[in-house]
Write a structure and sequence with these properties.
By secondary structure, the protein is mostly helical. The chain is 74% helix and 0% strand. The protein contains seven helices and no strands. The longest helix has 29 residues. The N terminus is likely disordered.
């Protein structure tokens, strides 16, 4: 069912502002094209490479907990308009990311036992880092 069909309509037949925003978000409207492309690159990489390489690319999560802690602390200061309930996913990452990255590291070290497989794992992680770099540059150029 299209998002428009499930949207709440006001008394005058118009969509409520929150419903319009939801439709925009679900449709990717207003997203910076480079951000959308970076996400597509990563999904395509994970779909088209050996699963262990996809796991290796996720090892950027090794650094996520400390970064996320700093970012969560800064959110109320720089973005006071954001509802704190909207940050729950990120608060959960403080606990989940260390587990995810430990499991990912275990998988990579168990399965990447040759120099060739270790090189592919390194290249997968390098790809993810470059993709994140493109993402950050894109956001910076769009809003700086």
């Amino acid at each position: 069912m299209p998002a428009q069909q499930s949207a709440k309509v006001t008394g005058n037949g118009a969509l409520h502002h929150d419903e319009i925003r939801l439709i925009q978000v679900r449709g990717g409207l207003g997203a910076v094209p480079g951000v959308r492309m970076a996400g597509e690159w990563y999904v395509t990489f994970c779909k088209t490479h050996y699963w262990v390489e996809a796991v290796a690319s996720s090892l950027t999560e090794l650094f996520a907990p400390s970064l996320m802690h700093e970012r969560l602390a800064a959110f109320p200061k720089h973005y006071p308009w954001v509802d704190q309930a909207g940050l729950e996913y990120f608060r959960g990452r403080l606990v989940q990311a260390p587990r995810d990255s430990a499991q990912g590291l275990d998988i990579v070290t168990q399965h990447c036992t040759t120099s060739e497989s270790q090189l592919r794992a390194f290249q997968a992680l390098a790809f993810k880092i470059e993709m994140l770099w493109v993402l950050i540059d894109t956001i910076h150029h769009a809003y700086a």
